[in-house]
Write a structure and sequence with these properties.
Elements lengths: L7 H9 L7 E4 L11 E4 L2 H7 L11 E2 L12 E7 L8 H11 E12 L1 H9 L16 H9 L3 E8 L8 E8 L2
Parallel strand pairs: 1-2, 1-4, 2-3, 4-5
Antiparallel strand pairs: 5-7, 6-7
Length: about 180
């Protein structure tokens, strides 16, 4: 049994796997991609070590780069998955636009983020804070952004996961329609 805590991806894998069909990428996977066939994408090693407290990835990193500039052709991926990364950006629009750019028609964008209220409750109950967070979300926030800026996506899910006591995660899934 490992002393390492379970990754956010591992906690929600059973909920997200049904959406990860075909060729896709797990952004900020830290070597633990959501599904074995996903490309594992993470920060350049120097920056990864700066943000990760020196913990090495659990598995292979296939590509390195930045989440706001993906090395994929437009409309080339069946899915783009990101677990607990979007909250590290103050302005979500440029990052979301980049992720949406890579999803092909019929493909899915799967995002897990902490709910601001529940995250603050978790911290009050002993969860270590994360100084990288700049903008936690709320249920419906991503749906509003997609309705306004990404009308070529249909929102499939935008809800709390509620998998365990103290769970603070929102799962958002959208499918590209055009």
């Amino acid at each position: 049994m490992s002393d390492q805590p379970m990754s956010e991806t591992a906690k929600y894998r059973l909920l997200t796997i049904p959406y990860c069909v075909g060729a896709g990428v797990d952004i900020a996977s830290q070597g633990d991609a959501v599904v074995p066939w996903a490309m594992s994408f993470d920060l350049p090693e120097k920056e990864f070590l700066k943000y990760s407290s020196g913990n090495p990835p659990k598995g292979p990193i296939h590509l390195r780069g930045h989440a706001h500039k993906l090395p994929f052709d437009s409309a080339s991926l069946d899915f783009v998955y990101s677990s607990h990364l979007l909250e590290d950006f103050e302005d979500w629009l440029p990052v979301l636009a980049e992720w949406c750019r890579c999803v092909k028609v019929g493909g899915k964008l799967i995002i897990l983020i902490p709910d601001k209220t529940l995250w603050n409750e978790a911290i009050a109950n002993g969860q270590p804070p994360n100084n990288s967070h700049k903008h936690e979300g709320s249920v419906g926030e991503l749906s509003k952004i997609f309705a306004r800026y990404f009308g070529h996506f249909q929102v499939l899910e935008d809800q709390l996961t509620n998998l365990y006591p103290g769970d603070y995660t929102i799962m958002f899934v959208a499918r590209r329609t055009l």
